[in-house]
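Moderator note: this is an archived Q&A kept for reference. The question asked for a predicted structure of one protein chain; the sequence and the answer are reproduced below.
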Amino acid sequence: MPNFLLPSLGGGKHPARLQQLAFRDLHSLLMSGEFRWIPNRLGLDMALFYDTGKVTPRFRDISWRGLASDVGIGIRFHGPVATPLRIELARSREGMTLVFSGRAAF
């Protein structure tokens, strides 16, 4: 199967801020957790998050060992139906990452 047709984990199409996981293979594991709070009711909320995951060529290789992870903080500006702007700052082994997105995290 061509590499570009394999399932991917991380990057822009997943909730994970794990930019280092923006690679592909046949099997993947992704776990994300957020603690959200609403400082005001005018379309602003904030979140602390933790993401971890991995991709493997064989299903039996999925385990709790060797997971890549990140932790960070984010701010979301939203209306009643959409999230037009999400800004997050994440720290992982590869360093700091600033993420801008126009959709909800989940």
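Archived answer notes: The chain has a mean pLDDT of 80.
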